[in-house]
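Re-run with default settings, no changes from the original entry. Doing this only to confirm the output is reproducible before filing.
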Amino acid sequence: MTDIAAHEFFHIVTPLNIHSEIIEHFNFVTPVPSQHLWLYEGTTEWAAHAMQLRAGLKTPEAYLQTLIRKMQVDLRAFDSTYSLRDLALTSYSDSGQAQYGNIYMRGALTAGLLDIRLLELSKGRRGLQELVRELTRRYGKRRAFPDSSLVDTLVAMTHPEIREFFDRYVWESERLPIREYYAKLGITLVEDEQGVPLRFELDANPTDAQRILREAWLGRKPGGGAAAPPSS
């Protein structure tokens, strides 16, 4: 119940405060999909769990076990050739509806990886939480973003490397680099012989680089301050 309530609460951010013109002027007679379902639902689902982690309502172990469940469902229940953009653009069709539930699995996992990548590139100072807050200030309830150019805006606001992230893991359906990204935090993904994820293990003695990035991932920013909650 807490996870569901948290997810619905964070919809005050997306799409209420961050949305494209397609959502702002939605055609309820003949629905036109936005390609940014990764933002409206995937990022919202990520936030529902990540903010509980950063507020101390979930332990790192409990949070990581949630990710394992999402990875298992993504692997077993959905078509891995569907990119998040394909899922969004077909969401009003029968084929898209069959894959729609994966936005809460693969979509949330992808948002978590984007958070780690942003923290890595900014040396722990600016992750997805901070980016969402900046987008809220830039757009808000009464200003929509152009659906076709959001990624250009995100790249301009962050780092050139973020374009490659979107090309590979949102526009296309490349295997998510979960093992590689969480290793940057000193967290090891354990899989069985068939490649099914079983658990994450936190290294009790991470390197200095891993420790700094893990602290930022937990919401403890460089300089000793905790990350502020996303604005509404």
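Strands lie at 187-191, 197-202. Confidence is low (pLDDT under 50) at residues 227-232.
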